[in-house]
Specification:
two-stranded antiparallel sheet, Beta-lactamase, Serine hydrolase domain-containing protein, Beta-lactam/transpept-like, hydrolase, seven-stranded antiparallel beta sheet, hydrolase activity, signal, single chain, alpha+beta
Length: 379
């Protein structure tokens, strides 16, 4: 494949960085050269393209690198849409907290009280708050859905929530899996809590969980590039394509049925929409004061099977990087690794998407790591 590199930046006169007044805060300054370097050099062996957007009073910058199509060399669109993966959870949490504010959902009540037939009968009481903070102890699916062989075989399958719950709570012989830990005693990140939360939202509203997101977030904020696709396998609108590379062959994996991820990781958006959403969420425009405060409330427990303190609040995570504490969420789907984060005062906000060439893995792609370092002043 011919090696191509493109950098597109906001404005008409080179790198557009609006520098904050001296002494505005103690955060390390944003450096345009570091931001450019973080996404430069694509395509490479790990990623075909990337986009980065930085906003806030600390400075503004946006750029892209690499290609949206490995065959045509088309540039990555700076406002292109992408699969946001687990950033969907922040939208789902927001919809649930809006129902809490309307007194249609009580975080202290149990899943069993809202949906008696959803969990196995022998499971202990699990509250809505446990779901929101990943402290339920529920077992998840054993399938590695980011394994290339499994993904390519099943990426167009349609899954129902009931099928997902059967996979999560039962072994192949039909016996019920044990809980991972007692509810509320530890934190373990995964999809299952938010899959169950999506089902509870549907029980409470009598409508698809996506309608709560459309009515409570997408339409009020006019998020024109954001969607809850359901069974639609396409990314509609401008976007960079996702690939899985093996021995020099690029398999286009852009199209996929997202129902296996459902309320935990199915959504599509772009950088401007995600910045608008996160800004509105953290500033209290989407939730009343009490529910906005919950976003930042982290359970006083440890991460399951570790000595690490819990770091996930109600839909967002506390993400300290160097001298800066961000609040936000990352996401990962085959072909797409992404993130959104902001300082509590919204003075520095970042959204990025990297088009990975190898799905799975336990660490973020190097490009994503470079982006985080550059935005945090550590490059």
């Amino acid at each position: 494949m011919r090696r191509l590199v493109t950098i597109a930046v906001a404005g008409s006169a080179g790198l557009a960085l609006l520098v904050a007044p001296a002494g505005a805060d103690s955060r390390p300054p944003l450096k345009p050269a570091d931001l450019e370097a973080a996404i430069a050099g694509l395509p490479d062996a790990e990623a075909s393209g990337a986009l980065l957007q930085v906003r806030g009073r600390d400075g503004e910058w946006q750029g892209t690198s690499g290609v949206a199509n490995v065959h045509t060399g088309q540039k990555v669109p700076v406002n292109g849409r992408f699969r946001i993966g687990s950033m969907t959870k922040t939208f789902t949490a927001t919809a649930a907290l809006q129902l809490v504010a309307k007194r249609k959902l009580d975080p202290r009540r149990t899943v069993q009280s809202y949906a008696p037939d959803l969990l196995p009968a022998g499971y202990p009481p699990i509250t809505i708050d446990h779901l929101l903070t990943y402290t339920s102890g529920l077992p998840g699916m054993d399938i590695d859905h980011k394994d290339p062989v499994w993904f390519l075989r099943h990426r167009f399958d349609t899954w129902t929530p009931r099928q997902l719950f059967d996979l999560a709570f039962h072994r192949e012989d039909g016996t019920v899996k044990e809980m991972l830990f007692h509810p509320g005693s530890a934190q373990k990140y995964g999809n299952i809590d938010y899959l169950v939360l999506g089902a509870v939202i549907e029980e409470v509203t009598g409508r698809p969980y996506g309608d709560a997101i459309r009515d409570g977030v997408i339409r009020p904020l006019h998020l024109s590039a954001t969607s809850v696709p359901g069974t639609d396998t396409r990314i509609r609108g401008p976007h960079a394509r996702g690939y899985e590379e093996h021995d020099g062959t690029y398999t286009d994996i852009t199209a996929a049925n997202p129902t296996y991820q459902w309320a935990a990781a199915e959504m599509i958006s772009n950088a401007p929409d995600l910045d608008r959403f996160l800004t509105a969420l953290l500033s209290g425009k989407l939730l009343p004061r009490a529910q906005t405060a919950l976003l930042f409330r982290i359970p006083d427990v440890k991460v399951h099977n570790s000595d690490q303190d819990a770091y996930l609040g109600h839909g967002i995570a506390r993400l300290p990087v160097g001298d800066i504490v961000f609040w936000g969420k990352t996401g990962d789907r085959p072909g797409y690794n992404s993130g959104m984060a902001a300082t509590r005062d919204l003075g520095r906000r970042v959204v990025f998407s990297v088009n990975t060439l190898h799905m799975g893995g336990s660490e973020q792609p190097v490009v994503s790591q470079k982006i985080i370092a550059a935005v945090s002043g550590l490059a």
